[in-house]
Fold Polyprenyl synthetase family protein.
Amino acid sequence: MQQVRAVVSAELDAVNAVIIEQLRSDVDMVENVGQYIVDAGGKRLRPVLVLLSAAALGAISDTQIRFAAVVEFIHTATLLHDDVVDVSELRRGRPTANSAFGNAPSVLVGDFLYTRAFQLMVALGNHDVLKMMADTTNTIAAGEVLQLIRAGDAATSEEQYYDVIDRKTAALFAAGCEGAALLAGADATKVEQLRVCGRNIGVAFQLVDDLLDYEGDPEVTGKNVGDDLAEGKPTLPLIHVMREGSEAQANLVREAINTKDRERLQEVIQAVRDCGSLDYTRNAALHCRDQALKALDGLPDSPAKDALARLAALSIQRSH
């Protein structure tokens, strides 16, 4: 990842400067919670995608740097809200903002970040980007509601699972790449290529995230194994067990989802291993990686294009 970031390191520093600048407020709580989130670090994966997409089409403009900050603000706002909804206590190896400050400040600062993102977008002066991001933000919110509705629902199909992750995760990856291309004035073909690349990286990223809930190291991932199970999330490894496993395995997983209980987590982990469900999920992520790489065909060769390809590969190789 360091090699990927190195291609746009100066511009990524500029994005971080915009983030810090735009977190300033005359309300102390906004700055306190906002700074807590910034200090937590994170991969800055979405801003990196924006910058690499911009660089793959030419020089990175100040407008694209500010758009990268917009994307990160929207992502951070969703995390603040998600952790409240999921009653999460740990993210990136330390207490979540809601654990540190309470639910109400987390929700309200999340609202502040959403609105600050739209203030920045209006200032960009590009109607197409503003419309696309308004639609994307609405899609993400709908995806979060769908995930909430389907929590504890063991009857969730694979198609419904993909619908949720496409909306709540992949949509922002796709929008970051598409927005960078729109701001570059790229033709429709290149805009679509980058959108498809971003979307597939986003789906692959979420698939691996769902894998790590059953085989990740909490010391590395920064969150507890089995959190998804405790929230009753019917992720792809579990859906595969219920479809392909024995009756006993399917009933085990079905009950764990319906009751939102990880008491039998070790048995569930054994089931997803024995049924080949982790490999099935990993192969799905590999397919998305290949689709992302295919979408880059036709773009001119450049360090940025190479870094996008490397990022697609890293999306399935990560341990956190």
